[in-house]
């Protein structure tokens, strides 16, 4: 350690000389199979573990969705192939109890076992160290424990399908009394509670790690407003996770005690002498977590899309700071709006109206970054590669989802639309469709960095169009039937005379859903084919400047041979002072400001 | 002349690897404890909601909770925090065996706390006031037992520091492992202080 330091510029890229960040010394890559692939401390390997877990459950949750849609459009008709496998006693037709269980587990799996592992577990792990110029996470062991805690939770969740009376069936929110021993006498619900508690613990471990890494391990010169927006999104998500997943954990703990030890936290109707529990208390705990959760799911996708739109428009992100700040403001506001999920429980009107006002305030920062997205693309030299197509898809789908949110944030319309398919359509557009498309954009974009191979562009484009069209039909169809008065979670809506005229829409939604499901095989094929025999990727196939593209694909075990020194923002495109290319790496000094090598005092001369 | 490079602005100062690691572990623990704070805050919130919605609190016919023993216990836990805080001061590195004595003292007082907790629970439970006795029993046992599990976890973590302390590897809170464990123990104590006030006094 000395009081002056060296910045070395080699091959046009700046990095620190000796004396800086020596706490991040290079560990050798373990050669032992178990330490390298299974109990790995390397954030890139852990990212891939999360990716495999998430993709497997995405397939499983998606299959459940197909079977749910089949039952809605064709009640009483056996589901092809899988029906006979799952429901042999009912002749392949999904029985009502199984239907409840399926929509419960579909929600649980998609939220906690598909989106969370892919967007947060995989891309959080992959991108944070690589994009901020660090050699690994701040706490690699904690990172490994985070994945294996999640794995343990997965074991409990999968096992719950095979216990007597089957998996949980109280809805993904598991409101009491649907989720107490009265509504769910089987062990499946208890295992659900345990699985969510464990998954939450793993998420918190990851969150603490991400927050600390971003605060402490940014490369020299990288201020918060020099970080790629993807890191901003993931970082804000991690903060919300660290603060609000514990509230869900508290709810799970109390529900577990109610189910197992006979406590009365959520069980109403006890005699006056004992004091009565309160089912609505659970709803408070659930939504104090649950509203930040929807932003937890979407923020990484927002960040990734904000970056990709700039990368493929070959322009700096329009209003970079405004985008980062509006995501921050939304994160703050998301902590104070949860009551809009509970307008019908009988809250005081004063409280309801406060929640409504706060909810409506979210449209302001949302509109800011949405317009920034459009501003980024406006007059850009857009390259329509598959990651860009999926990013534009997010802009479109999120626009639809955001606008329908206004109907649900306003008390007057929400009371009519509450618990209808309109809600289902809305939240799928915002936190399912947008996030799914964002995840695909991210996978197509960072696949070369993760695996060193390119994905097939033609198949990618087919996959995009065969996804976005049916997806829009599915969720807009749900908005229509919901507006027409159809309740969510109905096993057989043909039992209700007043819903009969919605039958054609429901049938079309199911057809589109089956097309959507089938077209995902294109992705699976493309993914596996590219993994095995894809074209070899160079260090920077997309020609962008963030730090992960300055190292080889895939990066070495320690990411950076020398810690970079950041001198540019993340979207330095089409800079007129740069000749011969339209992008600049974040650690590439521009033009005549670039010294061959320099020794600088640390005190700021 | 290199005005564009951030080193020149003095934003980045070199620090030793130990200092960097110390600060990183501290930042991580602050956020971990923030997370734990939200967990207990949610439990206190649940208590508040149930209590405010109850017709009477404590419910009619419920035996009054003892106050003397829990008060003594609060003192025991605060004393343990005080001892530990002295043991992990940077100055402790120069006082021979200061951390070792503080750890043993904290472990002793922490164990005494758990024993006294059992002494509070057992007579109540035997008198028929159990975790199944409506929301009053649910809250009382739910909160205090969950806290006691955290105290136990804290004691185990403190005990894990003993070998390193006896071997001379740890001598004060300058070592990140010692510092973060002490932070966790203080957190457990602060939660108890609030729980004592919320459950027994008001």
Task: Name the descriptors.
heterodimer; A: 605 residues; mainly alpha; Cytochrome C Oxidase, Chain A; three-stranded antiparallel β-sheet; 16 helices; 3% strand; globular; disordered C terminus; B: 202 residues; Four Helix Bundle (Hemerythrin (Met), subunit A); 5 helices; 72% helix; 0% strand
Outline the structure in words.
The complex is a heterodimer of chains A (605) and B (202). With 605 residues, chain A is an all-alpha fold. Chain A has one domain (4-342, 349-593): Up-down Bundle (Cytochrome C Oxidase, Chain A), CATH 1.20.210. Chain A has 16 helices and three strands. Chain A has a three-stranded antiparallel beta sheet, with no helix packed on it. Chain B is mostly helical and 202 residues long. Chain B has a single domain (22-201), classed as Cytochrome c oxidase, subunit III, four-helix bundle (Four Helix Bundle (Hemerythrin (Met), subunit A)). Helix content of chain B is 72%, strand content 0%. Chain B has five helices and no strands. The termini of chain B are far apart. At the A-B interface, helix 6, helix 7 and helix 8 of A face helix 1 and helix 4 of B.
